[in-house]
Each structure stands twice: as structure tokens, then as C-alpha cells.
Amino acid sequence: MKTLRDIWLIFQRHMLLMLRSPLWVFLGVAQPIVYLALFAPLLKPALASLDSGSMATAYRIYVPGMLVAVALGGGLYVGFGLLGEIASGVVERARVTPVSRYALVLGRSLRDVVAVLVQSAIITLLSLPLGLFVRIGDLLLAYALLALISLTSSAISYGIAIRVSNPNVLGQVINNVAQPLMLLSGTLLPIALAPLWLRRVADWNPYSWAVSGMRALFAGHSGDPAVWRSLVIMGGLVVVSLAWSARLFARSVR
Amino acid sequence: MNEAVIQAEGRAAGRAEGRAMIEARGLRKSFQTRKRGKTTAVDAVVGIDLRVEAGEIFGFLGPNGAGKTTTLRMFATLLPPDGGEAVIAGADLLRKPAEVRRAIGYIAQGGGTWDDVTARQELVLQARMHGIGKAEAQRRAAQSLEAFELADYGDRNCKTYSGGQRRRVDIALGVVHRPKVVFLDEPTTGLDPQSRAHMWDMVRKLREEGMTVFLTTHYLDEADALCDRIAIIDAGRIVAEGTPAALKREISGDVVTVRVAAADAEQVGAAQSTAAQSTAAQVTTAQKAADLLAAEPYARSAEARDNGELRLAVDVGESAIPRIMRTLESAGIELSTIELHRPTLDDVFFAKTGRSLRES
Ligand SMILES: Nc1ncnc2c1ncn2[C@@H]1O[C@H](COP(=O)(O)OP(=O)(O)OP(=O)(O)O)[C@@H](O)[C@H]1O
Ligand SMILES: [Mg+2]
Questions:
Q1: What residues does the ABC transmembrane type-2 domain cover (chain A) (predicted)?
Q2: Residue B69 in contact with residue B58, Cβ under 8 Å?
């Protein structure tokens, strides 16, 4: 109960700050939209080998991958903001209060979830006139999955930021984590196109499972086992990553 | 001796029956730093023992890097000690950190506010993070703005504040939940003299409201004027502890410097004396005076210097001066100046460490 209240407190503060400067939320969708407009047509022949080959199908495969890329890629960089907050002393001030340490991470991560969901809604809406079709129930479930993905990526990013603590090094570390995770999850190109050995490697990437779940939902196959598998895997990862970074928060923030 | 000093010493004398708010034994901390692959340990705090009574303003005086912030961060549950133990407001620092956090306020050396949020919003959130309900938090925020003379700026974003205003916001944030103990890390560093005096008043007000204040400083005058009791810390160790007045008295009592007039200065001057001759005459007279005064009961020691000066260590300067003058007069020695020098905390620091706090 107290933890929930604390989470709400921290979340409110970060929402307030985000609403004060909402620009970056919109800047965050600029690149995905360019990709959507330019790359999807380019990829159509490649994607066609997987399905009937219509433009609508291309977007059905491309948009869910794009959304995971936004949730995963965007989330992994939120640690930079935390380093700024640590330097300003606001994190330390919170740590001397009895506020829940989970709230300090989760309150921030939930703000990141809101940002990702807003961005996802914009991308989805812009894809509709391009021929994307998705049932509302499937879409909501997809957004729930996106929220979980976003929670994991931001918790991981906060954890790495606390461990690394130097903003220059943080950029390197995040890039080195983000690139394999993104490439080996088939966010932009379906992993099904990859050779077998690469697919085996990708099986070890939880986000690859998340992308499969997302594509199943956008294809209208909500009963596909990929859907519940992705939800379970992401749910588990949420618990682990939050526990990890909350512990770091409690122990080692300077 | 002024009233504040008497009060402070009274409080210190009442230590035995006082209630300890902070009690530390053997607290220590070293940091591992890595440089070109080699790890070296910095012993920031080597072993702190201290006891602070309820209602005291206790000062931690020390030069840069002495370990003040490190000690404070350990007390504030921000840094786990490598060894030792402490009890703060009745709660064990190592076993019950959450309880300690409920009882304390901590104001960091660099403060800490969000740029794009107002002081009022910060105060409300801070109170709520301490578990205070929404309506009460808003009431306290309004009160704090009033008490710290921030009412006029309370609804402006924190990034627009001046240094003094910002520091007042920091302190208001640290005490909005009315803690039993407040840790203030260098409350006045970087403030102009007027803001500093203002800040001292606010710190005294916190004590009047029943809080125990533990502050760090490297200003001698601040330790002297504001603190009931101080500990001098150097290289992670407490080298002296007591009321400022007692510490200074412990050093040497007061020092009286007497300069004797050059004997028969007029005649010698007429006879084209050199400056050296005149000084030599002065030194002889000073030596004579020193021998004379050393025999007096109020003088601890008397020493003539080779510039014609005479230094006397006495217990209480004010009562010694008239007696010195009488003694010299009856011996026919004329004096040109007499000066009373009270030992400062810097003299205390010098006596304990061999360095001056002003230089370090
Ligand atoms: N995180 C850290 N890592 C390594 N060394 C540290 C760390 N924090 C402090 N130190 C070292 O410990 C020593 C004590 O530092 P501390 O900050 O406690 O000094 P201080 O008395 O507060 O000084 P100042 O008056 O400059 O604030 C210094 O030598 C400092 O360099
Ligand atoms: Mg310091």
C-alpha cells in the first residue's frame, strides 16, 4: 500500500516534468515515422516472401517491430536523464526519506512507459492510412506487451546508469547492449529471414520473443502461443530488472 | 565572557544527564579509487567517536577533504560505514536505517532541487515522501515558505533562485517533516556575509523548535559564533572537541603583547643613533621587563623577543593588563603599546595539527 502510494508520488513528479517539456516525446517518433514511410516500401519484396505480399501485410509485419524498437531502443537511453538527476542531488535527497526504493525506480519507469505508449499511439495512427489494419482488442494487448517491454528496458538502463555513473562510458555501454538486442530480435527485419544459426542465437534474446508476440497480435492471431509466451517472458523480465535496479538504487547511488 | 558562551558551557556541562541524539563509536570509511588499473584506498574517515546531546548545535570544523561530508553521509544512511557503529535519535544506524531516515533531515553540501519545479511543489513532494498526507503537506509547505522567507518566490521555478534563496529552499526541504536531528553540510559556503548571518539565525531557530543540529563548516567564525560545541576534524580524525571557548582556553589562555618604548629615545636620537642602537636598547629594556613580569603570579610565562616585543601568556587577559601596566610603571619602564590577543580556533587547530586552517 505504502509502496503503491510512493510509486504514484514519484510518477506524478516525473509526469509533471515531462509535461513541462513534452517536445522530446514527439521528437522520439520522428525517426520511426521516417523509417515507416521510406523503409517499409523498400522492404516490401523481402517481406512478400513471408506472406501474400500486399502493402497492408508489409505494415502488419513492419509496424509491430518498429514499436518494439521504440520501446526497447528508446527505453535503454533513459539512464542519461537519471545521471543528470543524481548529479543535481535530487536523488540523494529522496534516498534520505523513507520513500520506497522500488518507487524511485518504478515511478520513473512508469513515466517512460507513458512516453512509449504515446509514441506508439502516434505511430499506429499514422500507419492506419498506409493500410495497417488491426483489431482494437489485439491492439490493446499489444500495448500491454509494449508497456512491459518499456518497463524492462528503462529499469535496465537505470541499473546500468547507476553502475557506470560516467555519462561518456554510459553511451558506449548502452550502445553495446542495445545493438545486439535490437538486431537479434528482428525488430526491423523479421528474424525468420535469417539463417538457422542466427535464429538459434535469437532464441536466447527475450526481446525476440516479444517481437514474435507483437507480430502475432498485429496479424490478428491473438490465440497464437507466441502471444502468451511473450507476455510471460516480458513479465518475468520486468520483475528481475526492477528488483535489480531498485537494489542498486538503494545501495550505490552517490 | 558573553551570555551565549555561558549558556553553551552550561549545556556542555549538563552532558552527563543529557539525552544523546547522535552517538558514534569508531566510525570509519575508506574509498577504493582506480587509477590506471591500480587501486588505491583513500582513508576518508579513520575513526570517529562523538556524542551530540538533544538540542545542541554541534559543529564539525575541518579543512577540505577532512572527511566531514563522508561522516555526514554515513549518518544520513547514504553510505555504509566500513566499521564502527552509531545510534541516531535512538535508532541503530546499521540495523534500523529506515527508522533513522524517519528521524533525520539531511541537507547536502550542494543541495538538490529540480530546475523546472517550484519550491512549493518541492516542499509538498518532500513532505509526502516522508509519509505526510496531501492536505497536511500543502499546509507545511506554506508554513515553510513563510518561515524561511521564501513566500515571495515560492511559486517560481527553482532554477530562477539566487544562491541564498536556493540554500534556504534546501534547508526548508530538509526540515519540512520536523525531524529530530538535522544534518547540514556547509550551510553557508558561497554566501555573502549578510546571507550568512541570516542563515545563522535560521539555524538557531531550528534549535529553538527543538531540533538537534549537526553542521559542518570550514569557517572559524561560524564554528565560533553558531555552535554550542565543536569537533575539529582533520584527515578523518577528530583532533579536539569541546565548546569553542573551552577549546581556546585549553590552548594557552590569553596572550598579551607589550612593546616597550626605547629607553632615552630622545637623547639617543639627538646623538645620531642608528636604528640598530635604538632597537638594541629596546631589547634590553624588554628583557628587563620580562624578567620582572615572569615573577608575577598572574603570568604563566614571559618572553622577550628580539624586536623589542614582550609576549606574556596569562589566564585572563582583561585582568592581567592593568597589573602589567602597574608593575612596569613602578619599575620605571615606559611602554608604547599593549595588545590583548585571544586564541582563535585557528590557534587550536594549529596546536593540534601543526597547520593553519586558513592555509589549508
Ligand atoms: N566517492 C569517493 N570516492 C573516492 N574518494 C572519495 C569519495 N568521497 C570522498 N572521497 C575522499 O575522501 C576524503 C574526504 O572527503 P569529504 O568529502 O568527506 O571531505 P570534506 O571534509 O567534506 O571536504 P570539503 O570541505 O571539501 O567538502 C577526500 O580525500 C575525498 O577525496
Ligand atoms: Mg564536504
A1: 23-252
A2: no
Report which of A122, A139, A99 is spatially closest to residue A3, judged by C-alpha positions: A99
B204 part of contact set with chain A, CB < 8 Å? no
Q: At residue A227, what are phi and psi to the nearest 5 degrees?
A: -70, -55
Contact (Cβ atoms closer than 8 angstroms) between residue A59 and residue A40: yes
The label of the residue with cell 601596566 reads B325
Q: Which residues in B lie closer than 8 A to residue A165 (C-beta atoms)? A: none
For residues B232 and B259, membership in a common domain is answered with: no
Residues B193 and B56 in one domain: yes
CB of A82 closer than 8 Å to CB of A162: yes
- Is B281 a member of any domain? yes
Query: What is the spatial distance between Cα B114 and Cα A20, in angstroms, rounded to a whole number?
Result: 12
Quote the CA–CA distance of B347 and B354 in Å, as a whole number: 9
Q: Render pLDDT for B4-36 as a digit per residue (tens, 0 to 9).
A: 544 555 444 444 456 899 999 999 999 988 777
CATH number at residue B332: 3.30.70.100
How near does any CA of chain B get to the CA of A21, in Å? 9
Report d(CA B211, CA B199) in Å as an integer.
16
Residue by residue, DSSP assigns B79-104 as S--SEEEEEETTEETTT-HHHHHHHE
The parent domain of residue B53 ranges over: 15-251
Q: Which residues line ligand 1 (CB under 6 A)?
A: B 31, 33, 42, 44, 62, 64-70, 109, 218
Whole-complex ipTM: 0.87
CA distance A254 to A86: 7
pTM here is: 0.81
Residues 6+ apart with CB under 8 A from A22: none
Q: Tell me how many domains chain B contains.
A: 2
Write out the three cell numbers for A220. Answer: 490478428
- Going by alpha carbons, the residue nearest to atom 12 of ligand 1 is B44
The DSSP bridge pattern shows strands B212-217 and B181-185 to be: parallel
